[in-house]
Amino acid sequence: MNTLTNEPIELLPVTYLLKPNKPNQLGDLSVTLQLLINPIANHLNGVSQVYSSTSTSVQSSVFGDWQYIPSVNKPSILIVLSGACLSKVLFDGEAKEYENLKVRLLLNEDWQFGYGMFEYKKEGAWHKIATAVAQLDTRTGNEKLDKLYTLTQSTKAGL
Question: What 3-state class would DSSP assign to 151?
Fold first, then answer.
């Protein structure tokens, strides 16, 4: 609910697949991001899974922000996400969250494709993929793409 206008906020669900820009790197590593985009507050929330065919996965609750970056040559969408999960070790009888994922994406203005980087924490060590390709999942419907593009255009008009 938008507290200023008392109107409901429509969250836009999207799914992205990230893969290293170098094929066959790190056992076919991939990251799936299932996000809800808040168009009013420029926030994103969701879940992610880092998957490798050679090891177990790393799951996270993700949260972050998106921003429209105007440019004469190539306007873009910047997405910055952090991920966390609950510790299996209890502290004073409670599980604590710890950061285990960092994602930075620069998407085309249409939200469908881009590049970025990600880091994930596994067994206490951070692993960084400096160049990754981000692709919108094809199951994201055209209606959602139209709403994302409209969102970008309205953001552009407000600048």
Answer: helix
